[in-house]
Structures are given as structure tokens and as C-alpha cells.
Design goal:
Layout lengths: L5 E7 L12 H4 L3 H11 E4 L4 E5 L8 E7 L20 H21 L6 E8 L19 E8 H6 L1 E2 L15 H16 L7 E3 L1 H4 L12 E3 L10 H26 L12 H8 L3 H16 L1 H6 L6 E7 L5 E7 L12 E7 L1 H24 L4 E2 L9
Helix pairs in contact: 5-7, 7-9
């Protein structure tokens, strides 16, 4: 079978939410009212750290699909002031978040042990206030949340090929600004400067999903030891280091795009490496000039720039059974699955969704039970399931 991205159709039950007159949908989705609906109709578990586990009503997969959101909707009413990445949340919240991640990923790998049969992934996206609230493509919930998804490989093998020129598939590889123009310095900074001990850099070929040929051109790290390594707090510390390194690269680059010969930012995670690796690199600064010159001349291009750090970071398992970490700039606002070459067309079809719903909920309640046992929250009752 020829490798290439796949496009699948995932049915969902239409959500009976009415957007108030005069509001755009993505404005309403940031409201406390919408988050109340999410918790009351799809909520599975909530803990004192305000981490809410919920069923994805507009899911990517009806095999297994849920999210955890850091629900600050009632404590921070300004959507632009909410934490939108792990480096912005309190240490005690991040500690609980990491434990929840470990248990859910462990459940997915245990329930779906064969990498030839199921694609398993978990990850999160930056939801920074990088665009106006009313712009198309702005995330619908401006709060930090992550995804836990399983796709049957049989479904992907039987899916029709996706258009490789689909803009949502051009976030990495030859289409990426970082990869195309600054490949060497990007890799040197993010792979060599972080001094990781648990994570091990892995080649593009070894990281790819054979079926789709993705990810393309993204820095990737293997997790030696597999699922057991996720029980070690050092893994999660290094997972954060990957993000911090990416943020330093992104912020430094766009500071140079914004202002020629801008001074080094004052709040970097790796200031010595930024100074020695980035700010004396001709490819890095030449690319910043190229983007800056185009911004001055091209209003549409300048308006599309995400000046603040925008990223997607995920953990996934490929067909060889390797657990891999990768990270990508989120320049377009694509779905996290598209980093792996999976394009999801979500289609309203209540009857089709209801056929898959019982097994889906059964799995979600099983993983919820494990979280409750680990003292990571209390169950939420909805019209579809009890509190547990």
C-alpha cells in the first residue's frame, strides 16, 4: 500500500447549543456557559485542581477519544488571560496533570497492545491569544487542554487518500518555515542543546507512521522503555524541556522578525544556548529578514503570522511499537491528528454515532475508574452515565 495521508469520516451527535444572537461561535465557546454545558453533558471527572476529564462531543475517533481541560472559565473570566500551555500552570496542577496523562496513556496501551491494529496518540496544542477572537481558525476553547485518541488501523487502511496539498497537512516537513529554511540550526538547538537523558533523538524514517508517511520533518525523540518510562517523573520533566526549548526558538525567531537586531528576550529558559546557537547564526537571521520583509509588503501574510508561541506536542506509537515524542509549530491551526497524516472529517450523524457510543462510553468509564482509584478526581454524573 502506497504511504500517504488518510482522510476518515467520524460521525457525531449534533450538539443542542444555541449561540446567543450577535455572538460568533468561537466567541461563545470561550464562555463559562459553554464550559458548564461541556461539564454537565460530557464531563467524566473533576478534581480540586480544576482539571476536567470529558468526552469529546465533536470527537476525532469513536474508538477512544477524550480530553482533559484546565477549566479556568469561572476563575479567570478574561479568555486572553487564561493559561494555555503547561509552562503557565502552577507546579501542583502540572504534577496532577502528568499523573492523569500517565494513567490514561497506560490504559490506552494496555487496551490496544498491538501497534499494527491501533494508532495511539496523546498530545496538546497551544491555545495562545495569537489571533483576534473573531478570526477563523482560532481555537474554540481558549484554555489548555489535551487529547487522548485511538484510531483503528483497519479504518485508516480503508480510508481514502487525503490531498497532500491540504493546508492542514503542511505544518511540518518541507512546508514548515523552521524546517525549510533553518533545518540545521533548528535541529542543533532543539535536539542538541537540551541535554536530555531519558528521551533519545530519533531519525525521521524511524519516527514515521508507515501507513501515512507522517510526521514529516519534525524533531522527534524515542521514549526508551516504552510505557514504563512514563511512570518516571524525569520523563515528564524532559517532556517539558522539549516544550521550553521550542518556545525559546519560536519566541526568539519572531522577536527578530518583528524588530531587526532585537535584544535577547529577558525570560528565556535557555539564554546561553539562544545567544550562542541562534543569535549568531546566519540562516536563522537571514530567514527572519525574509519573513520581516514579506510582512512589510504583504498585509494578508502579516495578518496570518502567529507572533506568540503556537505549537502542537504529542506522544504517539508507530507500527514498530516505538513510543515517540514530537513537536511542531502550529502555524495554521490544524488538528493534532494531522501531524500524523490523519485528516478527520467530522459529520453530524446521530444514528451512526449511537452505534459506537456504548463501547466508547464503556472505555471512558473504565479509564475514569482508574483515575478515581489513584485519587485524581471525583466522577461526574450526566444523562449518559452515573457519577461512579
Amino acid at each position: 500500500m502506497q504511504p500517504g495521508p488518510r482522510q476518515i469520516v467520524t460521525p457525531f451527535r449534533p450538539i443542542p447549543l444555541e449561540v446567543p444572537e450577535g455572538m460568533k461561535p468561537n466567541e461563545f465557546f470561550n464562555s463559562t456557559e459553554n464550559l458548564n454545558d461541556l461539564a454537565n453533558n460530557n464531563g467524566l471527572l473533576l478534581n480540586p485542581e480544576h482539571l476536567l476529564l470529558y468526552r469529546k462531543a465533536l470527537g476525532h475517533s469513536n474508538e477512544f477519544d477524550c480530553s482533559i481541560i484546565y477549566n479556568t472559565s469561572q476563575t479567570i473570566l478574561n479568555p486572553l488571560g487564561r493559561p494555555v500551555r503547561r509552562t503557565q500552570v502552577p507546579d501542583e496542577v502540572r504534577h496532577v496533570w502528568n499523573r492523569m496523562n500517565q494513567i490514561i496513556i497506560d490504559y490506552m496501551l494496555e487496551t490496544y497492545p498491538d501497534p499494527q491494529q491501533h494508532l495511539v496518540l496523546a498530545g496538546e496544542a497551544s491555545l495562545d491569544a495569537t489571533w483576534p477572537l473573531t478570526s477563523p481558525g482560532v481555537p474554540s476553547i481558549r484554555m489548555l487542554h489535551n487529547h487522548f485518541i485511538v484510531f483503528p488501523m483497519e479504518q485508516l487502511r480503508g480510508a481514502k487518500p487525503a490531498d497532500p496539498s491540504n493546508p492542514n497537512l503542511t505544518d511540518g516537513g518541507q512546508h514548515s518555515l523552521f524546517e525549510k529554511y533553518m533545518h540545521d540550526v533548528y535541529r542543533e538547538f532543539i535536539c542538541k542543546s537540551l541535554h536530555l537523558e531519558v528521551l533519545r533523538p530519533i531519525s525521521d524514517d524511524s519516527a514515521r507512521i508507515d501507513l501515512t508517511g507522517y510526521p514529516q520533518g519534525l524533531p522527534s525523540w524515542e521514549i526508551p522503555g516504552g510505557a514504563a518510562a512514563l511512570e518516571d517523573v524525569r520523563f515528564w520533566q524532559e517532556y517539558d524541556l522539549v516544550l521550553k526549548g521550542f518556545l525559546d526558538f519560536y519566541r526568539t525567531f519572531f522577536s527578530q522578525v518583528s524588530s531587526r537586531n532585537a535584544p535577547m528576550l529577558p525570560d528565556l529558559h535557555f539564554p546561553n544556548q539562544v545567544e550562542s546557537v541562534l543569535l549568531f547564526n546566519n540562516d536563522f537571521l537571514k530567514t527572519a529578514k525574509m519573513v520581516r520583509d514579506r510582512c512589510i509588503k504583504d498585509a494578508a501574510y502579516a495578518n496570518a503570522i502567529r507572533w506568540q508561541p503556537a505549537f502542537k506536542q504529542l506522544i504517539y506509537r508507530n507500527e514498530a511499537g516505538k513510543l515517540i515524542v514530537t513537536i511542531s509549530q502550529n502555524s495554521i491551526g490544524n488538528a493534532i491528528t494531522e501531524l500524523l497524516g490523519v485528516v478527520v472529517s467530522r459529520t453530524p450523524d446521530a444514528a451512526a454515532y449511537e452505534q459506537a457510543e456504548p463501547k466508547l462510553i464503556e472505555r471512558l468509564l473504565e479509564v475514569r475508574h482508574r483515575l478515581i482509584e489513584a485519587d485524581l478526581g471525583s466522577g461526574i454524573a450526566t444523562d449518559y452515565w452515573p457519577a461512579g
